From TrEMBL:
Gene Ontology BP term (one): regulation of sporulation
Name assigned to this protein: Aspartyl-phosphate phosphatase Spo0E family protein
Domain of life: Bacteria
Example GO molecular function: protein dimerization activity
Pfam families, alphabetized: SpoOE-like
Length: 89
């Protein structure tokens, strides 16, 4: 995978993580929207891990994403049962 594709995947992961946080804040842990978003984030992380398993490189970028709450990006999601949640300002 080239660098642009890696950066796009990282952006999608960060947006999915932030969206999961927003959904959890609004609906709580067991709501279907939260679980759906969690599964989407899991799949993005799995894609990232598969990419780096084949290249045998460290996951320093993933660690940075997990610990950085200030970055937010926007992926395209083909389908969701949940309404769009906006972040509180």
């Amino acid at each position: 995978m080239n660098r642009d594709k890696t950066e796009t995947l990282i952006q999608q992961m960060e947006h999915a993580r932030q969206h999961l946080h927003d959904l959890y804040a609004e609906y709580g842990f067991g709501h279907a929207c939260v679980l759906e978003q969690s599964m989407l984030l899991d799949e993005l992380i799995n894609q990232y891990n598969r990419m780096y398993q084949t290249r045998k490189q460290p996951h320093h970028v993933l660690d940075q994403i997990i610990n950085n709450d200030d970055v937010m990006f926007s992926p395209s999601s083909p389908f969701s049962l949940c309404k769009t949640v906006t972040s509180p300002t």
